Amino acid sequence: MMKQIELIQSWQQETGNGPVIVHCMNGAERSGLFCVVAALVERTKIEQDVAVEQIIKQMRSIRPQVIQSVDQFKFCYDAIKTYLEQYDSYSNFSEH
Q1: Is residue 60 within 8 Å of 66, Cβ to Cβ?
Q2: Minimal CA–CA distance to 44: which of 96, 5, 4?
């Protein structure tokens, strides 16, 4: 999914930063998961803040069916962790 988000962001920048439409069969499960992870990546880039629960809450205010299972919730955390691990060598702290 991270590669897909990267490709879409690249395409979006190349085409003038217009809106991107994401949809699945019920309009919430898969597309909602994608939108939450994409929003997490974007927020992390801009604000250096990982606020999984806050992003989910914001998305649910628009689409209440977003992230309905524990597996989806865990996937959000795992996805942003994977994203952040790409930059481990650039962090200004180390684990002891």
Answers
A1: yes
A2: 5
Taking a C-beta distance cutoff of 8 angstroms, is the pair 66, 35 a contact? yes
**45: domain range?**
27-84
Q: Give the whole-angstrom CA distance, residue 31 versus residue 88.
A: 29
Q: Domain for residue 54, yes or no?
A: yes
Q: Please report whether residue 89 resides in a domain.
A: no
Per-residue pLDDT tens over the stretch 54-65: 999 999 999 999
C-alpha to C-alpha distance for 80 and 71, rounded to whole angstroms: 14
Cα distance between residue 2 and residue 10, in whole Å: 12
Q: Under 8 Å CB-to-CB from 24, ≥6 apart: which residues?
A: 30, 31, 32
Kindly report whether the global pTM for this prediction surpasses the value 0.90: no
